[in-house]
Fold these 3 entries.
Entry 1:
Amino acid sequence: MKTRKYTLLLYTLSLILLNSCIDEYWPEVSKYENLLVVEGGISNEAPPYTVKLSISSPINDNDNKAYTGCSLIIEDGNGNQEFLTETEVGVYKTPDNGMQGEIGEKYKLKIKTPYGKSYESNFDYIKNPVLIDKIEAKIESKGSNDVDHELQGYQFYVNTQIPPSDTNYYLWKLKYTYHYQSEYVIRWYYDGHLNTFYPNDSLFNCYSTASLGRFYTFNTENISKKKLEDFPLNFVSTESRQLSLRYSLLVKQHTLSKNAYLYWNALEKQNSDQGSLYSQQPYQIKGNLVNVNDDEEPVLGYFLVSSVDSSRIFVNRPDLPFYYSKCSINQGNYQQYIELGATDPVFYPIYVILYDGNRAVPGQACADCQQRGGTIVKPDFWE
């Protein structure tokens, strides 16, 4: 989850009824600027654990400013401490061989800033994990106001095993990877001279990995069946290249305390309202960190203490229509090859393909898959 969401969620527009009319409501936002934002946690998974610190930005800024130079400690209920090292600006990590979260133990985070401020989270316990039984993908269709046809693709679902307790609180975070290809195989490249490109398929296959921009929450307080079946997660349509060859979804199922669930559930609801003119009035979602010397100071974010179970699924290209734009070759691409010698060197190397028996210069993203954001390095986990 990107830290800028903490800024955006506080500035959601809403409408209120006044004298039977609907008026725009603009909240006072200055008090939510320049606040500490915390993102990270500890679990039963193997270390390292990461905590990101930033300072909330004004409404017209896109991103929060990373907070550097802080001292961070994770402490357990027995007084054992693990110091975090700043590995990049605003990103703090525990050692690879350091403290590992234990089921049934409690943990908290301590932060000291370069300006002498001290913050702490509440102690929270790592609960017994609820295990994932399976992740399923089903071909489904969904309506959309953005296109003139139904969206088609895979709807993903999670199923749990029988939980160890009757009431459980869940948070699901997802990361996806997909394999895609460029449209054309490179035959030559031009860097002032025309050279044979070898191996000619080395920029043809790519893999792109990212965390899903949203998360999911659920609790079993008021339901009789405690084992979850077909709980819906993300839907991936054929509007993009993600399902063009092979797609993998990694699901991390966090079992939370009730307080942690209330925070993440409120954040999920708030995020889902963003962009709607009829959303609820903005409010600060209270996390679990405080300034130890000033409990009136708002602190954004949450130090998550949870148990985690993970599961990964792979799916192949579905037998469905795809709607993403594809590359094409026209007379201009052939002409670009003829005029290679006049090309500004700032554009080197220029890739050349063979199309219908003639040499052409395609859009370079059509030949070099990396230019669509992926990498040619196959992930270790790829099947």
Note: The first helix runs from residue 4 to 8.
Entry 2:
Amino acid sequence: MLETTIIETQKVKMKKPILIEGLPGIGLVGKIAADHLIDELGAQEVAQLFSPHFPHQVIMQKNGVMRMVKNRFYHAPGKKNDLLILVGDVQAVTSEAQYEVTGKILDYCQKKKVSLIITLGGYGTGRVPTQPKVFGIVSNKPMVEEYKKYGVVFGESKGSIIGAAGMLLGLGKIRRMPGLCLMGETHGGYVDPKSAQAVLEVLCKILGIKVDSRKLDQRAKESEAFAKKMEKEALAAKGVAFPEQPKTDLSYIR
């Protein structure tokens, strides 16, 4: 496996699917929201993505069986649009790797005739918000007014969106695929289920669905434990000691 590969685990016909991306990033906001959405909708895995750009390790599971580090696609049927939800263990971290992995994801999306890309993440501000705002950025100007009505705040976020949340929109636009990024306001130095809940609530309004968000705190704890384990193992492979104190700048988004 010398290049990024997507393997379908089951073939499903999809109705104008919307891609929802929630890979690990700042505060694990997007990951927590997307993982919770999968559970609440009972979405079924349809494909797995493997890449030589992911860490060179396998994960030991409680049942005694290992598994590869990967990203996964899940499918959930909808009334007007089906959902294709992308989650995973890690992201590619170099520029070249992001371009390749994102390209493979978009190839798969075009094959499934994805009509809209929505990426999820956190927007680090360095402070703890009382009520997190959900900032937005879109690939085309007319989309701004379309999503303002759902409470998405445009024009206040600054900087850049690093990683899949930004690259899917950027490379997707080149392929004429419209995109929206929802970013939950967060401190940026810790896992933030409250921000994930704010993002999920706005996303559900946009999609016209309802989910129960009461279990987000538990999901946040599980996601944080897994993320720390992955980072510790990756650093150990490089001969670098794992820091006792958490990082103040979690990677990937902004």
Note: The first strand starts at residue 5 and ends at 8.
Entry 3:
Amino acid sequence: MARGSLSLRIRNKYGRYWQLYVFLLLPLVYIIVFAYVPMLGTQIAFRKFNYTGGLWGSPWAGLANFQKFFSSYMFSRVIWNTLRISLYEIIAGFPFPIIFALCLNTIVHRRFKKFLQTVTYMPHFISVVVIVGMMIQIFHPLNGIYGIIARFFTGTTAADLFGNPEAFPHLYVWSGIWQGFGWSSIIYVAALTSVPEELYEAARVDGAGRFKMVLYIDLPALAPTITILLILRLGSIMSLGFEKAWLMQNNLNLRTSELISTFVYKQGLAAGGPTDFSYAAAIGFFNSLVNLVLILIVNKIANKLSETSLW
């Protein structure tokens, strides 16, 4: 009798909203086809891929592709370049959206606030190709604004920043900060809107200034959001955007601009030389595995230190 009543309740529950469950089929199929089925392709990293045998007919190579990468002189270079720029991005760029959101929250004039938000959001929608093109024009040693200013003050031709390996990380990181800090601040601005106005009124009554309100009201309200986003960012520390690095890269700055993403592309897909799909897949698999381990470790640490974590 109990089983019958339980099955009846289940049928009533799911039968009443069956249309909603039908709508779930499309995203479910999408996830299976584009997220889980491609995982079968990770086996290419453990094979010696050839076109005649295909994915399933290529001979097994075991860990040979991974050993080849670990013993390569490029291993330390691409790992160091990727970690260096990624950590640089986190240290220099992660606080910017938070600070900007806190500053926006102090602005009383609504029209000026909306104008400032719109202006800072706009660079996010500019294509990376256009951004790099703008950078090339601005920092051109002869005709760019940078070259003209340098020649005006020094009387000599400015150094070519795009040809300087040491300048590449700074150009990459700070152009990304300029393009993304406004857009990244949206989630922090949204979190601040949920703070009750009564807290600010009570703080004013107690004599708290604007700085103390930020310190004791705004920052605690943003703490869970900051923690989650920092976990996600640290979990993808080995993943840097390919397109921008590829466009900024040249033979002169290759020493610091060769990242894991660009190296994988050159090994597996780039024209003009021999390609090795299995070797490129092994590097990509290693990169994903490191990111997975990092996000597990960072999430565990966040869970120990605070009550906020991904799971």
Note: The chain has a mean pLDDT of 87.
